[in-house]
Design goal:
This protein has 277 residues and is of the alpha/beta class. 39% of the residues lie in helices and 20% in strands. It has ten helices and nine strands. The structure holds pantoate (PAF).
Length: 277
């Protein structure tokens, strides 16, 4: 696996990957890689593409009081995991390369960014959309793989790609989970052992609520039980609600629905989501 840190080198390396006429998949990440990220690499490879992974801890998507400075950075371990997973090229831009002095452009997607994490983390999705569009222009992939764990992010990227006529196929990859159901996340590294024990309440509460709503129970009652279960496990709940799976607006009859939650345990904020069938 080749590693590049300069845009000119990236473009030359991507041109080499394309030389045989094959497709190129982009897997954008912020590093601290786990099996969820490696599933994205596997999805790119399954699509028959050469895989380019990026690692960039994007300051634009962190709020002033968030965890930018302590976000885990472990480049050497990540590079080894990517190489073992069959990634072809690693793009490692620095902040100065990504946002040079004078950088003044923001990509803002309306609507789907407004509820949930958009409300809890003002400016977050502008930061995500801006860096993802930059990565798309830098790598010019045929497809890009995103985890369903960040369900709202996936819908924001799909909206942006549709609205801006980008010829990039967006592949959503199912969430990888620990044996007890906790969704894999780089932020799980923050959890103290007792918090890790309690964290399983999040997928359990979501699973029980999704099953109850799917059986036809009133959503309000199922969601109230989920809030209570999360509070009992020590979570402070940002949101736990049912939404239209694509627009993230109010659920609509005969359209796919998604249950989404974000909650803090100690200083760690976890998110998760499930379909409601
Ligand atoms: O999901 C992430 O890790 C980030 O939000 C992304 C898509 C790499 C943009 O910085």
């Amino acid at each position: 696996m080749q590693t590049v840190r300069e845009l000119a080198d990236l473009r030359a390396a991507v041109a080499m990957l394309r030389a045989g006429g094959g497709r190129v998949a982009l897997v954008p990440t912020m590093g601290a890689l786990h099996a969820g990220h490696l599933a994205l690499i596997a999805a790119g490879r399954r699509a028959g593409a050469k895989v380019v992974a990026s690692i960039f801890v994007n300051p634009l998507q962190f709020g002033a009081d968030e965890d930018l400075s302590r976000y885990p950075r472990r480049e050497a371990v990540d590079a080894r995991l990517l190489a073992e997973a069959g990634c072809d090229l690693l793009w490692l831009p620095g902040v100065a390369a990504m946002y040079p002095a004078g950088f003044a452009t923001t990509v803002s997607v309306a609507g789907v960014t407004e509820p949930f994490d958009g409300a809890a983390r003002p400016g977050h999705f502008d930061g995500v959309a801006t860096v993802v569009l930059k990565l798309f222009h830098q790598v010019a992939p045929d497809l890009a793989c995103f985890g369903e764990k960040d369900w709202q992010q996936l819908q924001v990227v799909r909206r942006m790609v549709a609205d801006l006529d980008l010829a990039i196929e967006i592949v959503g990859v199912p969430t990888e989970r620990e044996d007890d159901g906790l969704a894999l996340s780089s932020r799980n590294l923050y959890l103290a052992p007792d918090e890790r024990g309690h964290a399983v309440a999040l997928p359990r509460a979501l699973g029980e609520a999704a099953a109850a709503i799917g059986r036809g129970e009133p959503a309000a009652a199922a969601l109230e039980r989920a809030h209570e279960a999360l509070a009992a496990a020590g979570f402070a709940v940002d949101y736990c609600d049912l939404a239209d799976a694509e627009t993230l607006g109010a659920p609509q009859p005969d359209r796919p629905r998604r249950l989404l939650a974000a909650a803090r345990i100690g200083t760690t904020r976890l998110i998760d989501n499930l379909p409601v069938d």
